[in-house]
User: Fold this.
Amino acid sequence: MGANKLNITWHDRVLTKSDYLKRNGHQPLVLWFTGLSGSGKSTLAHAVEEELFRKGCYTYILDGDNIRHGLNSDLGFSEADRRENIRRIGEVAKLFVDAGIIVLAAFISPYREDRERVRALFEPAEFIEVFVNCDLAVCESRDPKGLYRKARSGELKQFTGIDSPYEVPFRPELVVNTACYGVEDSVRAVLAFVTERGFLGGDW
Amino acid sequence: MGANKLNITWHDRVLTKSDYLKRNGHQPLVLWFTGLSGSGKSTLAHAVEEELFRKGCYTYILDGDNIRHGLNSDLGFSEADRRENIRRIGEVAKLFVDAGIIVLAAFISPYREDRERVRALFEPAEFIEVFVNCDLAVCESRDPKGLYRKARSGELKQFTGIDSPYEVPFRPELVVNTACYGVEDSVRAVLAFVTERGFLGGDW
Assistant:
């Protein structure tokens, strides 16, 4: 690179969300999937991400796999730790949105107040709460990680839906019912919502 | 979007770093700028980011402005809090690298052990420690935020270089001396290093 190709400005020139937006061709966004363990949040989020990625969107998933083993490895499952867990995830989502990225966050996030606090970090149009609604009995019958079994036997304490509350969203942007509909239909519902709201620009 | 355009796979299909890499056309990377307050870390990081962005790289800055007011707003400046501050920043950088992004992190990060712990989160080629070397006297004479004045008067406690240690890196990938060289030369040095190491692919 020749010296004369440098175009450095020293003062107050900082790349902003709008620079990233122009480059990426779509608005940044948080798709916040909330629901019981086993409701299909993570499956849904990954499937939606893959579709968005294939369409050329800049995306990233935040879920238990990459958060609980890293950033929040110091937190447990007490109410205080769960609140701090969600607070930090919200702040990380904000950094990704600032970088122009569509964040898909899949966490039980059982407390309404915590989710509202995350929502408040964003512009109204940037935050989409997706309630992944599924009856406890159905979630428990799926029990993909055997967690309900452990919770019922008392081996696992403070398990959402068993001995820890889940507070249903009052006004989520979108509800998908994964007890009645397959995940493919649910993915389609999320994509339709995002598209109709004009978040992605261009011709979908 | 027509139903038949959905291409959903349900099991274990998760986008990986290599998917993002293919799309972005360059490796993800952490450029970790460490040095005293006033050494020019943040100025340098922003200027390098702008150049990389102009070249088409996918970049994001982590610095005090977006971390201390958000994710780490619960932390102070005690040794324990400083360690936790750097730990969390390292974990967030890891998420961005996982998303295929070049992260520029500009933090005093005074403790060697903390920086090494961050380094250990990454592949060897992914982490570049840039020691922004500048004599304390020069940093203090710049004092862009008036912090050294406050530290000298005792108004500010535990200030790195005054009453809190700064541990010089033993083996940083790169040292830039901002007391002897202007920021433009320093930017050039960082870009040359990154380019020579082949991180960016293509023809620079």
About this structure: Confidence is low (pLDDT under 50) at residues 1-5, 7-11 of chain B. Chain B touches chain A through 46 residues (CB under 8 Å). The first strand of chain B starts at residue 29 and ends at 34. Residues 87 and 118 of chain B are 7 Å apart (CA to CA).
